[in-house]
Structure formats: C-alpha cells, structure tokens
Amino acid sequence: MPTTYRHLYAQIYRFEHLLAAYRRARRGKRSRPDVAAFEFRYEDDLLRLSEELRDGTYQPGTYRRFTVTENGKRRVISAAPFRDRVVHHALCHITDSR
C-alpha cells in the first residue's frame, strides 16, 4: 500500500520553512549577485514567495545556461534563479523529512 501524506503543501509556504530553505540555498553562494540581492530584502522576498505559493500564483523563473569544462569535457549547465532554488530546498526538505 503506497504511503499518503496530507497537508504537505501548506507546510512548504510557511514563512519559517521558507526561511530555513533560504538559509540552505544560500550556502556557498552568498557572493553571487542574485543571492546578495535576494539577501538584501530576504524577509520581503520570502513573504512574497509565501503568498505566491499559497495563492497559486508562483511561476518559476527563467533558467540561466552556461558551459563548464571539466577534464576536457564540456557540459551545459542550466541553473534556476535563486528564489526557485529556495522553493526547491523547501520542497526537498518536506519530502525528505517524511
């Protein structure tokens, strides 16, 4: 019988949960301009993100693409905007803690 979880979505947009997700998402990335801009007004940004998630108006942003070369091999990387990374961390933490 598959496991069923109820009321998980409401936990994702709780401010406290988004704050913890924001702190996890910024590890090792605080010098990046997009992370620094989010950090400058993080409370307002997290409140707005919480409202968008709660109201169903949240839309993921545009990924940025860049190429890295490792061991002579080129790879194309697609990176989500920082606020989307916060949502990713919130979602993964909810599902991992169950």
Explain what the structure shows:
The protein is α+β, with helices and mostly antiparallel strands. The protein has one domain (8-96). Helices cover 55% and strands 14% of the residues. Strands 1-2 form a two-stranded antiparallel ribbon. A hairpin with a 2-residue loop joins strand 1 and strand 2. It is globular. The mean pLDDT is 91.
Mean pLDDT: 91
Largest sheet: 2 strands, antiparallel
Strand content: 5-15%
Distance between the termini: 16 Å
What spatial order of strands do you see in the largest sheet? 1-2
Overall tally of domains: 1
Helix content: 55-70%
Total beta strand runs? 2
The low-pLDDT segments are none
The radius of gyration computed from the alpha-carbon positions, rounded to a whole number of angstroms, is 16 Å
Task: Based on Cα principal axes, name the global outline.
Answer: globular
Return the string of H and E elements: HHHHEEH
Helix count, DSSP H or I runs of 4 or more residues: 5
